[in-house]
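>> received
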Amino acid sequence: MALTSPPVLDFFDPRRRTVLETDAARSGGLGYCLLQQDAAGRKSLAEIENPRLQRLRERLAPFNLLAIWRQGKLHAIPDALSRAPVDDPAPEDEEAERDASHQLASVLSRLATDGADDGPSPFKDAALTEVRAAAAADPELIALTDLILNGFPEHRSQLDPRLRPYWGVRDRLAVDDGLVVCGQRLVIPPSLRRATLERLHASHQGVERTKRRARQVVYWPFLDSDIANHVGACPACQQYLPSQQKEPLMPEKTPSRVFEAVSADYFAWAGRTFLVYADRLSGWPFVSHVAGEATARDLVCSLRQIFAATGVPTTLRTDGGHQFTARLTREFLRRWGVEHQISTPHYPQSNGHAESAVKAAKRLIQKATSSGELDMDAYAQGLLELRNTPRADGRSPAQVLFGHPLRSAVPAHHRAFADCWQRAADDCDARAAAQQQETAERYDTTARQHSALTMGQRVLVQDPRSGLWDRVGVITAVGQRRDYLVRLPSGRVYWRNQRYLRPQRSLISEGAATPAPGRRQQLAPSSAPDGTEETAAAAPAGGQPAPPVLRNSADDPSSVRRGTRRRRRPARLTVRWADQTYD
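>> returned
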């Protein structure tokens, strides 16, 4: 009664501002009231933060209306009416609701077309002229223009397959002076989309920033995916990509006895070169000074003496330094029955045990000596204490090797050497396993598993010195510890850990069949190639992919054909060190 009696109810005054307040409830009710007031608020489109209200404001932009949002507590009349509908919607109301979007699009198109009769703008936009000419010659845009002016069908399936991607934005499409627009965005014909992508990516920003820029001014179906492909395939952007994230630790089998598996490496300090040889089970280190330049002959002499004192290991892990990969060293290890495992280039953590031993030995020499001379009491006492210091599992290298600590200059009662005071081996083994598991879990919290690369896949190769992804190659062999052989267009073969490789992103050329993934050839597990001849497949000719072609909305993936010819299983790939470099 309050709404239908004074002072709420009054006569219409054409001199006062008229406001239509509306509200729709989820229950199906629609409430509205016609009010007159002296003043009303005004908000620009840029000031509206709610996306739904922004879209509503865009639809009403061609009309001489002012739409404002009011809080529910200040919107009492239509809110109360919408929550208590008098009647359910009639069938003609539901039909009108479905047709309202088409009618609105038709009205907008007609208004835009009628407004063009007022005469052309005194200033000509060359870019718009180019788009208008391309749209007038493009069958897809011609059909889309007719569809906008005449109305969309009731169901998406009734559309031409080329125009089905526009179904979701049909309410926002309009025609303005020969140009198709989607809201405030210009619909770009297929012939100009590649050039538009290049202009959008002129600043070489990332995918998301380029998408935000495109959403301001242009539109076409699959725009977001085309931007992602274009930015991902940009040669300049790929060259300056950041380094790969580290991958989770790979579990490694623990040696069953001391000096069964060992590591070795060189380091230099104070103008001197030193060789470090460490047991992978106990951590017992040997450090020897190399007189002059480190050569393969000196390495063989040192290894021969260590083998005689500690026994012959089954595996020796080193990096790919020229002393370790020389023919003299390889023949020596072959005669003694030692498997030589070489870490991938520029990836020292694959031989982390040797790196850790080198760090401890180098720190000791730096602090215990002034010139790097090893024949000194201070260095010998320091090395002895290093071998006597318990590790995280509770045992020292000396206890693992001899079953008890070694007597040193540090005072110790004889009870300290009794068996009853030594930790039980089983307890220490359990603590070591728990410590190893904890270390792996802590490391893996910031690691991410990368997708494995396949034979024949084109990859970018990172320069370990400059950090640039400035080489393109083809995978020719796959190892078992995330290591790969990559052939460059020049024919040179690189051996790299996956951290220095990433798939090359490029768009498929129009009419080109998608290549089937190659078989995975296997390298010997993290070992140096053993001397047989290389049998890798040749890399595709040329160093750059064919110019990418954008996907058209009418493309049919089922048209891609694959070869049916039977393929022979490729031979095992190995490389002679005499033909390759550890680069």
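>> Confidence is low (pLDDT under 50) at residues 115-120, 508-522, 524-562, 570-581.
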